[in-house]
Amino acid sequence: MKRLALGLTLGAVLFAFSPLTPAGRGDNKEKPIGIPRRAGARGGQAFLDKYCAPCHTGEKAKGNFRTEALTPESFKDRALKAKWAEAVNQLNSQLMPPREAMQPTAAEVAAFVDGVAAETKKAEDALKDKAPVIRRLTRDEYKNSIKDLTGVDFDTSGFPADPSGGGFDNNARNLTVSPLHVELYANAAKQILDQALVEEGQPRPEKILWRFDPKNTAMDSRRVKLDTKNNFVIVNGGKNTEEGDWIVVHHESWDKGVDARNFAVPVEGNYIVRLRAAGRVPNRQQVTAAAEKILAARRDQQLQQNPNGAKYHQEAYQRDLKHFATDPIYGYGPPRVKVVQHLGSQPRTVAEVDITEGPKTYEFPARFTTQSAGINFHYAYDIPRVLENFWCQGHDDFARPELLIDWFELEGPIYDAWPPTSHTRILFPSPLRQSNEREYAKQVLAAFMRRAYRRPIAEAELAGKLALFDQARQDKLSFVEAIKAPLTAILASPNFLFLMETPGKLTDHALAARLSYFLWAAPPDTTLSQLADSGKLSNPTTLKQQTDRLLADPRSSEFVRRFAGQWLGLNQVGANPPAADLFPGYDRHFELSIVGESEAFFAEILKSDLDALNLIKSNFVVVNERLARAYGIPGVKGDTFRRVAVPAGVHRGGVPTQASILTITSNGTRTSPVKRGTWIMKTLLGADPGLPVANAGEIAARVPGIEKATVRKRLEIHRTRPQCARCHSRIDPLGFSLENFDASGAWREREGFGYKGRVEQNDPLIDASSQLPDGTKITGVDGLQDALLARSDDFLTCLSTKLLTFALGRELSLADRPLVQGAVKSMKANKNTLRSLIEFTVTSEAFRIK
């Protein structure tokens, strides 16, 4: 099988199982080495002496790489162990030995890599017990743990972001704790318990139900008195048309907003924002008719001002009218509303939803404090502002989806019971509450600690927390305030904030936690805890059954979001979005949808037990209406993602064709074959071309003497520099294959050089053909996908490496090579399903030991 001749860094070469056989390798003609071999050198040392030492020995060793330092004892030294890995890296990336030097055979390379991996594993096994690393909960895991434990949906956005390691934010070595963390955790524990618990005997807060009826009035002129003394709320319908009871919001403008402001709820809590709304969507005939009126009025005005230009004015009229009659952007979807809450000085988007045509009541949960507040409803359907329509976008006669608002309400605070479930989840009913307060407190703390620490509790641990309660009661605090003292200590304890795992085989309780945080990013549920109590969870059959159960649970969406999102880089979407003037079709709804597509696509492959190679190329997509319009797929209605067969002529199917990936691998103003090629190497093949050489520079924005220099042409000129050619020869062919997708992910046949990047008649056709260093010729995205499928072992190896890294919470090394090999073998034996990879992972020795 041919292999992509790609440069591999350590993370990739650890798992390049099939020996590479480049041109010249295997032609093992003896050449003088020029230095004596080490006496008795064997295995890897002998290999280095034979093929590497001529250039890499002594004080003038090239690249500051000296083979004489690599002895059997060097595997115990972190820095020197990395040198062994570097040697492997250079061999597998075909960078060394140089072409003019003696070449090792494929068998010699394989033996060297196997030997280094085995020695690395021995050294790491010997050091494991000496340096155990416990893992802190990530922000997501903390949030989910708090919700499971207390019922409180706590906002963790104020916590420091979790640093990434090995591509994921759950890497134990990176999840350190700073003094800031300690302070934030302590403050958060107090806030959470204050929200969860209410004082005994406290009456249920009276519920409000405020209805706001917007009218077409001057801005801020209409004030309505609510049912409290100081609430004179501003209710603004904006300068919108009224149709009976309905306010018709036609487009987004500073004076078109519908809102209620300057009010304060009497009690902090969870509320419901309720909206009565409908939508109206003009069809293509209505769009064309409306445009004809506007265009005719413009033409007539121009004729009055310049009668001699009648021919030009008529041609412009016909040309622009054809735009409205044919351009896909006027195949409108439903109007969209963005609901924004203002609390104090901080705006927060509560929801963004499509509004269906029939009148309907929509509900949005939001938490309000007693600060001054407001609710805004923004028209959120974006029509691209292009040359033919930008001048008429603000006209009310311009046909576009219309948002109709009847009224909106604010109701709350909302409780599912009284006392709320968050209270009774912690302070459960018991006759001991009245007869023996201290014993009741002990039971409450025992139950809470058991769930928070995710294991049985020792009597001494319980006694320490009970002493905090006793002290608080002696200080005359109420029972609820007194119990908060030990509860706060529990939520700030390392036993809650860390996954406490002792070296060696994991206990069933530690295994339950590792499994649930892997697939749910949340603590073990009752079933897992009971199996751990009975000692049955560690049975491989039971583990597989529980894995299937956890994957079937809606909470497994956290695994999809966190693993797929970080592996594919979806968290980068929107960081450098396509420029609005060059790519007007890229809007907020599109941005949300492209992330949702990639997540839903991965979820479909997982839930339906499909071949994971569908991630490379598939005959279906998972899209909503917004994406279907962008991709040219008819018949998809609604904002829900669903599986749809790819129609003929639509160039989609597989992760490389998804707009999320195509946008994050572009530069905002143009495509980047370098970024795209690098992304494919790193993300799909587990290869890394390494960092660019110093002073490599950017590709030129303009090329003197060439009027229309494509990105491809500029890159070809760029890589004529010797320092650039080596990397670009491996990267660029992969990136060129995606050149038919522009920087916003839209399909194109030509590279546009017209106004704002428009494609003109004589603009150059896209050349998406290329040749890989091993001679494989590929054309376009289909050729790329076929080439990747031909290297399916590399992809499965990369996928297995990524998932194992995420599951174990650590970066893999050469010592993990047999583990990854076993994962790939398991996938192949089970139709390459993601489920088989996950089940292999949770039953592996690596997952069940510390």
UniProtKB/TrEMBL annotation:
<dbReference type="GO" id="GO:0020037">
    <property type="term" value="F:heme binding"/>
</dbReference>
<keyword id="KW-0349">Heme</keyword>
<protein>
    <recommendedName>
        <fullName>Cytochrome c domain-containing protein</fullName>
    </recommendedName>
</protein>
<dbReference type="GO" id="GO:0009055">
    <property type="term" value="F:electron transfer activity"/>
</dbReference>
<dbReference type="InterPro" id="IPR011478">
    <property type="entry name" value="DUF1585"/>
</dbReference>
<feature type="domain" description="Cytochrome c">
    <location>
        <begin position="38"/>
        <end position="153"/>
    </location>
</feature>
<keyword id="KW-0732">Signal</keyword>
<keyword id="KW-0408">Iron</keyword>
<dbReference type="InterPro" id="IPR013036">
    <property type="entry name" value="DUF1587"/>
</dbReference>
<dbReference type="InterPro" id="IPR013039">
    <property type="entry name" value="DUF1588"/>
</dbReference>
<dbReference type="Pfam" id="PF07624">
    <property type="entry name" value="PSD2"/>
</dbReference>
<keyword id="KW-0479">Metal-binding</keyword>
<dbReference type="InterPro" id="IPR013042">
    <property type="entry name" value="DUF1592"/>
</dbReference>
<dbReference type="Pfam" id="PF07626">
    <property type="entry name" value="PSD3"/>
</dbReference>
<dbReference type="Pfam" id="PF07637">
    <property type="entry name" value="PSD5"/>
</dbReference>
<feature type="signal peptide">
    <location>
        <begin position="1"/>
        <end position="23"/>
    </location>
</feature>
<dbReference type="InterPro" id="IPR009056">
    <property type="entry name" value="Cyt_c-like_dom"/>
</dbReference>
<dbReference type="Pfam" id="PF13442">
    <property type="entry name" value="Cytochrome_CBB3"/>
</dbReference>
<dbReference type="Pfam" id="PF07627">
    <property type="entry name" value="PSCyt3"/>
</dbReference>
<dbReference type="Pfam" id="PF07631">
    <property type="entry name" value="PSD4"/>
</dbReference>
<dbReference type="GO" id="GO:0046872">
    <property type="term" value="F:metal ion binding"/>
</dbReference>
<dbReference type="InterPro" id="IPR013043">
    <property type="entry name" value="DUF1595"/>
</dbReference>
